[in-house]
Amino acid sequence: MSSDQEAVAADAAVEALEVGRQPMKRDEIVVCRDVHKWFGQVHVLRGIDMTIRQGEVVVIFGPSGSGKSTFIRTINRLEEHQRGDIVVDGIELTNDIRNIAAIRREIGMVFQSFNLFPHLTALDNVTLGPRKVRGWSRQRAEEKAMELLKRVGIPEQANKYPAQLSGGQQQRVAIARALAMQPKIMLFDEPTSALDPEMINEVLEVMKELAQSGMTMICVTHEMGFARAVADRMFFFDEGLVVEEGPPSQIFGSPQEERTKQFLSQILH
Amino acid sequence: MSGADLDLPRLPPAPLPPPVSTVGPAAWLRQNLFNSWAGSVATVLLGALLLLVVTASAQWVLSARWGVVTENLRLLLVGQYEPAELWRVWLDLAILSVLAGLTAARGSAPLRTLTTWLAAGQLLLGLLILTSDIGPTAAGAMLINAGLVWLGYFAGLRAGLSSRALSIAWLAFIVIAVVLLHGIPGSPLRVVPSVSWGGLLLTFLLAIAGIVLSFPFGVLLALGRRSDLLVVRALCTAFIEIVRGVPLVTILFMAAIMLPLFLPSTLRIDAVLRAIGGITIFSAAYVAENVRGGLQAIPSGQIEAANAIGLNAVQRNMYIVLPQALRSVIPANVGLFISLLKDTTLVFIAGLGLLELLGIGSSVLSRPEWFGARLEVYVFISAVFFVLCYTMSQASYRLEAAMGVGKR
């Protein structure tokens, strides 16, 4: 066991005591039961059920306004859900700040608009979390960060500021930043939607590599090529509900619901 | 196209000089000063006016009674500070010079600008002191200090101190400087009571203390005004709005008259402290409003990203929100601090019994031998303020330019 893994294991043990981790069924890592959310009067999530196993790659797609982004943002409490249960790796997502912190330590997130910290270099963007949240030394955090920047293919950009990088490079730094916290689960919220077409592939390649390495991934995306290649299951969202779920072969080959067929025919030309 | 054209070899035309009428001083004059009939008349009239003003001013400068400045220079610089203890002021300045030099060696362009001005200012002051009643020792000290700035700079280039060491040194300097000025009761370092501090020394003290204290106070107020806790938010908002609705002079009057009335007679707060308190409270409310503007400009995605990597609220503000927000409001805050420096003159009106630069100037003028030398004193005071404010605004421009790196 490497020292990194030991540290994570030790962290996890401490958290388990603090937040009262509940036992989960074998290899289930995210369990959502009847999740509801309202924005004012608008009922945006109308009872989502989803269980994700360790190492699974899940793609969520659907028309805009269907609640898919809102849903994955409830998993790490960027949005609060108002009814139902969310359990991540045995930790129940409640209003208790310790539970929220423990869950956020398990989840990495990549945003549509990158959200890199513009006043920090790429390297400092990646090292900030490990140094401040995990208390690593600068040297240790930088070694890990360089390893990750190599993994996403841009070690030579380490000392540049986000504004000096292309969109694709920024998104790859954002992926490295999320991975630096050594999460068990990665959330991707339309990671390629803000990119110029020629940069989409470099980000998808990194995501494919990550999927093949066994990372649990929940991706909101309309990149159907990516979904076909690496997704284990796909969820079609519409009007705050899961309309259809199944493996890519079913979704692309023989969708069961009329609404799914209609939507796919619009985005697959 | 006919074939004949193609047979001839085409030579590129040689570059021609521009027409004489568009370059050179004569052309510049015509374009800028005499471009039309009306423009020419305006140029001549304004030129004549300018000449008149310049010659009149020069005549006045040459014939003015500058003795009122040179013979009272000690008062204007340090007020009633005991002449025998003046070495403490010069020693403070010497430490400041070395520290500024050391910092400039590590720092960016704005710091180097400030430090250059510090050296130049002390050089100028040294020359001024030579002509005055203070004596050659002080003048020598000033010239040595100017040298110390450069010495510190080159030592800093060699040693390469960490920014943490420099921060600690600056904090230590603030304490040492005040203790040195004030003295320690019952020790060989006699106490020089703060009521005797005055002149430029007091102006500096009020301005620097006001800036150093109101900045963190204002940042906290701005954060409080955006807090999720209703009580904190209400208190901060009320404080900011009330203070911004009141003139500084009133706050200083309260510090001078009301405070002693409400406090028990055994509890006497030092007048300098009361003045600093009033200035700090006033300035903090404005700093808070500036900073609030910077905080509002931070996109929500930044906060979400900070949350997603697991930073807590304090870390989020320390490492993500404030560095970006404060950077964007530096120009506005420097403007505020320039006003603060000039507003220290209101302390004189408020009747705290403190004589800063303007106050001591006025008290010099109340002596019979200097009746009629008002203009000389006020021109001198204006010149001092101008140099200080101009330095600050120059440093601020450099700061804005240096901020370009890593900008969104």
Helical proportion of chain A, percent range: 40-55%
The best one-word shape of chain B is globular
The largest sheet of chain A is: 6 strands, mixed
Helix/strand-derived class of chain A?
Answer: alpha/beta
**Terminus-to-terminus distance of chain B:** 55 Å
Q: What report would you give on this structure?
A:
Chain A has 269 residues and is of the alpha/beta class. Chain A is 42% helix and 23% strand. Chain A has ten helices and ten strands. Chain A has helices at residues 3-19, 68-75, 97-106, 122-132, 138-151, 167-180, 197-212, 224-230, 248-253, 258-267, and strands at residues 28-39, 42-53, 57-61, 83-88, 91-92, 107-110, 185-189, 216-220, 233-238, 241-246. In chain A, the strands form two sheets. Chain A has a six-stranded mixed β-sheet, with helices on both faces. In chain A, strands 2-1-4-5 form a four-stranded antiparallel β-sheet, with helices on one face. In chain A, strand 9 (233-238) and strand 10 (241-246) form a beta hairpin. Chain A is globular, with a radius of gyration of 18 Å. The model of chain A has no long low-confidence stretch (mean pLDDT 91). Chain B is an all-alpha fold and 408 residues long. In chain B, 74% of the residues lie in helices and 0% in strands. Chain B contains 19 helices and one strand. Chain B has helices at 3-7, 24-32, 37-63, 67-70, 73-78, 87-106, 109-130, 136-159, 163-182, 199-225, 230-244, 248-262, 271-296, 300-308, 313-328, 330-343, 346-349, 357-365, 374-402, and one strand at 355-356. The longest helix of chain B is centred in the C-terminal third of the chain and has 29 residues, at 374-402. Chain B is globular and about 105 Å long.
